[in-house]
C-alpha cells in the first residue's frame, strides 16, 4: 500500500522501506506499547510518539509518591523497549491534532506525520469536576511528575512543620485524599504506612494525632464496584491504619491550606491528593467523532473508529464494549495492554490481506492494595480475596504488567525489603537549584 503522506513529513521512516505501510502509534502507555510490540514481525514501519521519552507505569505511582518504589521502577525509557524491534522508531513529541480525512497527525514540536494505519493510545488525565481551586492546589496522580511533586511536597511540609510547631496546628501534615475508588484507597493506605511507620520515627516531635489522613468519598461506600465483604474489609483496614473516612461528602473548594466540603466542613490541610475521576485525552476532540462519557472515543468490536477501518483507539481514551457481556470495559492497564495488542494484531492482519478480528478481554479480576499484606481482589466470577493472599495475587498481576524483567526485579526487591523492614530509603529531597 502506498503512503498517503508527502516526503517531507516522513520523519523516521527507513529510506529503504518507504513504500511499506506506515503505522503511527500515538502514546507509549500500555495501549501504545502493546500495539507497537505486536507489529514486530509485520511488514510495516512503525513510528511511536509520546510526549515523554519514557513509559509510565501508572498503577504504582502512589508507591513512588510515598517512597516505596524508586522513580525508575515506574518510568522506563521507551527507546529501550524497542531495541529488538528494527521496524519501530520512537519520537518524543506532543500531539496537537489529528486529521482523520487527511490521514495526518500534527505535533506542537515536530513536523506532521502521515499514516496508513493509526493507533490512538493517548490515555486520560485528571477530572477535577469543577472543584474550585483544584487546578492550582490539588495533587493529581496520573504522571511521574505528579508523583514526584507530591513526594517533594509532603517531605517539605513535614520538614517545615518540624521547624515550626504552629504549622502543625495549621494542618501542614494533614492530607485529604479525594476518591474512594482504587486510586484513592491505595494512596490513602500508602500514606498511612509512610506516616505511621517512617515519619513517626523520623519526626518524633510531631504528634501523629495531628498528622491526619482524611479520605473523602462522595458515594455511600468505598470501592463501590466491589462486593460488600471487600468494601467492609477495606474500610476497617484503613481505619485500623489511622485513616479517617468521610462518606457522602464532596470537595467544594481547595486553597493552599484549607479544604472545604460541600457540607460546609472545613479541613485544615496543606495537601489534597486527587484520586477521583478521569477525562480522556483532549486530542480525542480533534477527531470530529461523537465522543462518549468522559470524552472517550467509541470503537467497534475490532477497536476501529466508525468509518475509519485504518484507525484504532485503545486504552483509557477508548470506549470499548465487551463483546461477551455488552458492558463498557473499565479504564485499566490490563484492558489497555490487551486492546493495544489486538489493534496491533488487526493491523498486521489487514496488511496481510486478512480481516480484522474482534477484541475479547481476558479479565484477571479487579484489585486494589491497601498496604502491607492487605489487598482486595474480586474475580469476574464474583469470588473475593482479602489480606495476604490478595496481596500476593495483586503483586503477581502487577509484576506481569511491568514492561521488562529489570523493572519487575526492581519492584520485587523494593517490595520485599519494605515488607520485611518497613524501610523506605528514598526519603530525601534533592534540590537542583542549590549546591
Ligand atoms: C494512580 C493510578 C493507579 C492505577 N492502578 C491500576 C491498577 O492497579 N491496575 C490496572 O490495571 N490499572 C490501573 N490504573 C489504570 C491504568 O494505569 C490505565 O488504565 C492505563 O495506564 C491506560 O493505558 P493507556 O495506554 O490507555 O494510557 P496511558 O498509560 O495513560 O498512556 C498514554 C500515553 O500517552 C502520552 N500522551 C498523552 N497525551 C499526549 C500528547 N498530547 N502527545 C504525546 N503523548 C501524549 C502519555 O505521555 C502516556 O505515555 C491506574 C491508574 C492510575 C492513574
What do these coordinates show?
- The chain has a six-stranded mixed β-sheet with strand order 5-2-1-9-22-21, covered by helices on one side. Strands 11-18-12-13-14 form a five-stranded parallel β-sheet.
- It is built from twelve helices and 26 strands.
- The chain is globular and about 70 Å long.
- Strand 1 (22-26), helix 1 (30-38) and strand 2 form a beta-alpha-beta unit.
- With 435 residues, the chain is α/β, with parallel strands linked by helices.
- Flavin-adenine dinucleotide is lined by residues 27-32, 49-52, 56, 58-59, 61-62, 94-95, 121-123, 141-142, 182-183, 281, 283, 315-317, 331-334, 336.
Summarize the structure.
31% of the residues lie in helices and 23% in strands.
Secondary-structure blueprint:
Elements: E1 22-26, H1 30-38, E2 45-50, E3 54-56, H2 61-65, H3 71-74, E4 75-77, H4 78-81, E5 88-92, E6 95-99, E7 104-107, E8 113-114, E9 117-120, E10 124-126, H5 134-137, E11 139-140, H6 144-163, H7 165-169, E12 175-178, H8 182-202, E13 213-217, H9 228-240, E14 243-247, E15 251-254, E16 258-261, E17 266-268, E18 271-274, E19 278-280, E20 297-298, E21 304-305, E22 308-313, E23 318-319, H10 333-351, E24 366-371, E25 374-378, E26 384-386, H11 387-401, H12 405-421
The structure holds flavin-adenine dinucleotide (FAD).
Amino acid at each position: 500500500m502506498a503512503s498517503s503522506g508527502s516526503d517531507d513529513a516522513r520523519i523516521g521512516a527507513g529510506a529503504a522501506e518507504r513504500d511499506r505501510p506506515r503505522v503511527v502509534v500515538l502514546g507509549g502507555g500500555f495501549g501504545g506499547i502493546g500495539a507497537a510490540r505486536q507489529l514486530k514481525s509485520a511488514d510495516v514501519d512503525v513510528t511511536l510518539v509520546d510526549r515523554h521519552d519514557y513509559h509510565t507505569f501508572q498503577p504504582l505511582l502512589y508507591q513512588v509518591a510515598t517512597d516505596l518504589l524508586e522513580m525508575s521502577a515506574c518510568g522506563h525509557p521507551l527507546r529501550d523497549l524497542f531495541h529488538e524491534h528494527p521496524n519501530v522508531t520512537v519520537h518524543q513529541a506532543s500531539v496537537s491534532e489529528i486529521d482523520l480525512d487527511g490521514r495526518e497527525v500534527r505535533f506542537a514540536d515536530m513536523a506532521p506525520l502521515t499514516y496508513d494505519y493509526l493507533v490512538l493510545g493517548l490515555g486520560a488525565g485528571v477530572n477535577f469536576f469543577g472543584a474550585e481551586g483544584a487546578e492550582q492546589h490539588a495533587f493529581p496522580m496520573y504522571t511521574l511528575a505528579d508523583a514526584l511533586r507530591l513526594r517533594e511536597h509532603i517531605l517539605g511540609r513535614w520538614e517545615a512543620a518540624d521547624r515550626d510547631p504552629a504549622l502543625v496546628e495549621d494542618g501542614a501534615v494533614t492530607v485529604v485524599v479525594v476518591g474512594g475508588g482504587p486510586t484513592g484507597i491505595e494512596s490513602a493506605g500508602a500514606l498511612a504506612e509512610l506516616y505511621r511507620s517512617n515519619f513517626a520515627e523520623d519526626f518524633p516531635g510531631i504528634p501523629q494525632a495531628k498528622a491526619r489522613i482524611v479520605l473523602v468519598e462522595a458515594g455511600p461506600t468505598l470501592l463501590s464496584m466491589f462486593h460488600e465483604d471487600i468494601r467492609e474489609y477495606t474500610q476497617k483496614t484503613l481505619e485500623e491504619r489511622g485513616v479517617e473516612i468521610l462518606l457522602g461528602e464532596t470537595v467544594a473548594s481547595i486553597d493552599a491550606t484549607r479544604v472545604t466540603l460541600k457540607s460546609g466542613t472545613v479541613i485544615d490541610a496543606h495537601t489534597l491528593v486527587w484520586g477521583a475521576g478521569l477525562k480522556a485525552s483532549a486530542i480525542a476532540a480533534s477527531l470530529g467523532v461523537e465522543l462518549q462519557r468522559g470524552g472517550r472515543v467509541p470503537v467497534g468490536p475490532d477497536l476501529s473508529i466508525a468509518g475509519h477501518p485504518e484507525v484504532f483507539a485503545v486504552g483509557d481514551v477508548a470506549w470499548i464494549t465487551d463483546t461477551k457481556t455488552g458492558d463498557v470495559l473499565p479504564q485499566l492497564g490490563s484492558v489497555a495492554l490487551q486492546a493495544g495488542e489486538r489493534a496491533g494484531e488487526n493491523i498486521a492482519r489487514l496488511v496481510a490481506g486478512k480481516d480484522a478480528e474482534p477484541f475479547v478481554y481476558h479479565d484477571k479480576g479487579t484489585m486494589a492494595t491497601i498496604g502491607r499484606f492487605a489487598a482486595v481482589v474480586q474475580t469476574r466470577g464474583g469470588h473475593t480475596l482479602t489480606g495476604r493472599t490478595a496481596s500476593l495475587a495483586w503483586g503477581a498481576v502487577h509484576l506481569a504488567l511491568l514492561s521488562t524483567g529489570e523493572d519487575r526485579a526492581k519492584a520485587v526487591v523494593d517490595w520485599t525489603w519494605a515488607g520485611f523492614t518497613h524501610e523506605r530509603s528514598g526519603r530525601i529531597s534533592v534540590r537542583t537549584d542549590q549546591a
